[in-house]
Amino acid sequence: MNRDRLSLWLPVTLLLLGSAVPLIAQAESDDKASDSPIAVVLDAVHDLGRVEYGESYIHEFEIVNEGSSVLELFDARSSCGCTVLAADKRIEPGETGRLRVRLDPGSQEGAFAVRVDVFTNDQANGRLTMTLKAQLSRRIVVRPGYIRYKTHRGAQSGRAITQILYASDGGPMRIEAVESPYPFVQVSFGLATPEELLEGVDAEQWTITTTLLPGAPVGPLNGTVVARLDHARQKVARIPLLGIVHDVFAAEPGAFEFGPLSIGEGIEASVRIHGYGADPASLSIVETTVVGTEAEIVKIESGLSPGYYLKLRLRPEMPRGPFEGTVRVQTNVVEMPFLEVAIRGDAL
Predict the structure, then answer these.
(1) CA 175, CA 197: separation in Å to the nearest integer?
(2) Fold of the CATH domain 140-246
């Protein structure tokens, strides 16, 4: 009789014990979660409305700690045009902290937004994101607003670009000086001629003309033309100057890079030769300084972008071991009489 009663109660006892374990674990987890900071940003996206070029704007974001332990702010990072000035490092439970930022709308155009990220010890919300929105209004209008050159070394035409400047409110404005970012970019300014005036603009118009000189070096252009102004509210106008100066000829890729390789019965490789000059050009007389190699020029007769291939052959009998040298191609262009392409590798 006792044995039957024991077998009846045993499963019930095990069931109760089994259910007690997760209830205790859940309670511990809830206690731990309740003892954590909880970060809440008030007005996480703030619209400043219309802002003006050349001015700075200060805004304070508010961060509330709705948890039961101290909220810590470890780091703050902002996107271009926005600077974090100050931030409360510790925010007590139930208190409100502040993050102070400065907006400098310099390179933006029209409607734009900048972002600030703050990293915290809130395990559920480790990164807070705040956004400042604005609409940039420029007192001085620049058209087209940027200067872009895409030319080649020694080019004699198509190098002058003109900008038109005027006050957006129609008031008086005068250019007093213009600064060039490069010694090979010449700048001049003056009142717009009748032929240069923009239609529909009821304001005095000025021009800034940049000229890329023939001695401009090969490479990218990334600078700013700075105009000093006599205007009641805006004293400086900045115009981005971008682009590139190509060499008359350029190889793509710029070298024959073989690395370690087995010559076997010979290896062939080629690079594309691009011509950027306006006048018809030709390539001839190919010479290579690496023993056991031979090169030739192959003209591309069809396609939208005519040009050349420079082909290089490593002959089976070339000496084994590291090799380095150049292929030299003669051109009919005065600014670039020779094009040289490097050769590097290791014949096994």
Answers:
(1) 16
(2) Immunoglobulin-like (2.60.40)
Domain 39-137 CATH (choose: 1.10.760.10, 3.30.1020.10, 1.20.120.1200, 2.60.40.10): 2.60.40.10
Q: For the segment 283-332, what is each residue's pLDDT rounded down to a tens digit?
A: 888 899 999 999 999 888 765 555 789 999 999 999 999 999 999 999 88
Torsion of CA 26, 28, 34, 39, to 10 degrees: -80
Alpha-helical (H) ranges within the chain are 2-34
- pLDDT value at position 68? 93
User: What tokens does 23 get?
Assistant: 């209830």
| Residue in the structure block whose two tokens are 């006892």 | 13
DSSP 142: E
pLDDT digits (tens, 9 = 90+) for 14-25: 333 343 444 444
Nearest to 104 by CA among 77, 128, 134, 76: 134
What does the block give as tokens for 341?
């392409």
> For residue 192, what are the contacts with CB-CB under 8 A and spacing of at least 6?
164, 205, 206, 207
Pairing between strand 219-230 and 236-246? antiparallel
pTM over 0.85? The answer is no
The predicted pLDDT at position 11 comes to 39
